[in-house]
Amino acid sequence: MLDMQLKQAQTEFASLRKMQQTAVASRHDMRHHLALLQSLVSRERIEELKEYLRTAQSDMDVITPLRFCENETVNLILSAFTAKAKQSGIKLTVEAKLPDSLNFSDTELCSLLSNALENAIHACANIIDGNERCIKLRMYSKNNKLCIDIRNNYHTEPIFHQGIPVAKEPGHGFGTKSMAHIVEKHGGVFQFSVRDGWFIFQASL
Q: What's the predicted TM-score (pTM) here?
């Protein structure tokens, strides 16, 4: 099952790479967009101009990765989940400053962050009051290790078994096991906890 999680992460990461390449191509074609805009303005075709700008803005919002830090992989992953959170009416705040080098693969990093953020979004989406749907992510360097702190509000308090959250729905719960496996594989430490209305995942590796 953990191998399946990593394969899924590889697929997601490949999709994110493709999104980045599309964004690069779009920036390369910007001169063509500008030429068309100039043509529409010169002919005073205002309604067509407005519609073109609306479409172009929507397309760029979808394909342009946001920049959170110097790490390209993290930027791609967080861009995707920022969009997912927004679609679910969830406020996601990010503070990211990573070590210069990491001792694990991009695939493992993608799996770790994707599972953590997917779980956080799932928990927040069940909250009735939209103002209470919040996720906070901090990634920082300490003693040349990557430290991760992800916390989210929740509707139903989670149940733990041997320090790991237990999924209530059949077929769920593999993500947290995968997260634990990746951290332990690289000699790191992790903790799942609940405090002051927040579900918290912390790891150092």
A: 0.70
Measured CA to CA, the distance from residue 186 to residue 19 in angstroms comes to: 29
Distances from the Cα of 99 to the Cα of 94, 140, 148, 181, 184, angstroms:
16, 7, 12, 21, 19
Contacts of 142 (CB under 8 A, 6+ apart): 204
Element (H, E) at 18: helix 2-28
**Which DSSP category does 29 fall into?**
T
What are the structural domains, with CATH classification, of the chain?
17-63 (no CATH), 65-204 (3.30.565.10)
**CA distance to 28, 97, 148, 199, per residue, from 189 (Å):** 44, 19, 11, 17
pLDDT in tens, 80-110: 889 889 989 999 999 999 988 888 888 788 8
